[in-house]
Amino acid sequence: MLTEQEQMKKAVGEKAATFVKDGMKVGLGSGSTVYWLVRKLGELVESGVNIEGIPSSKQTEKWAHEFGVPLTDFSKVKELDMTIDGADEVDENHQLIKGGGAALFREKIIAQAAKELIIIVDESKMVTHLGEYPLPIEVLPFAWERTANEISKLGCVPKLRTVDGEILVTDNGNYILDCPFKKILDPDQLNKELKQIVGVIETGLFIDMTTKVIIGDKETVTVID
Ligand SMILES: O=C(CO)[C@H](O)[C@H](O)COP(=O)(O)O
């Protein structure tokens, strides 16, 4: 029995799959909402639709194998027709905070490589201002303490992400700093300032990338272009 939130995630994941057409190359995001997308894409493939995906995490790659979604990579594909991904926060301008699942670096690569970025979320992710959700930032393990100190000068106290008492290591071999900025008034400016800090690999701020948001609430699924 799915919880109400799981049902919303399933609904938006399955809705996003209706935008995937025969012959498309699709970037596959990460997270529990994307799980439902990949599952649905597996059904499409089984029914004869010919698609190929590029996954943004080892977990998504595993799901693609499980559900029979063929995969490719950037040695064979220059551009993706679309990328479909979840998010941790979406503001009124469709700027995003991502990286709750620690996959933000590869997620940003597949987002940038795509002609269209479709974001799938339940209504709890919609916010007026970004920042209540601590911003994930992927940093180089070397001198991460110094990088954290530089980031703190921009107005937060970064916290090194751990799991079960162990430092979380991303699929790329890096660390994640969760940075509670609380209220980000100018996400574009903050992103630019963060990217200037040596040691910052990538930020979870996705600026001017979203082309469509699919939002699920208890009763409906809404698509906003
Ligand atoms: O950015 C992400 C992973 O790095 C996810 O898209 C984000 O955390 C949302 O996940 P979920 O669909 O499980 O709520």
UniProtKB/TrEMBL annotation:
E.C. no: 5.3.1.6
InterPro entries associated with the record: NagB/RpiA_transferase-like, Ribose5P_isomerase_typA_subgr, Ribose5P_isomerase_type_A
Keyword Iron-sulfur annotated: no
Catalytic residue positions: 107
GO biological process: D-ribose metabolic process; pentose-phosphate shunt, non-oxidative branch
Catalytic activity line of the entry: aldehydo-D-ribose 5-phosphate = D-ribulose 5-phosphate
Quaternary structure and partners: Homodimer.
HAMAP family: Rib_5P_isom_A (MF_00170)
Record function comment: Catalyzes the reversible conversion of ribose-5-phosphate to ribulose 5-phosphate.
Name the UniProt record assigns to this protein: Ribose-5-phosphate isomerase A
Protein source organism: Oceanobacillus polygoni
Gene name linked to the record: rpiA
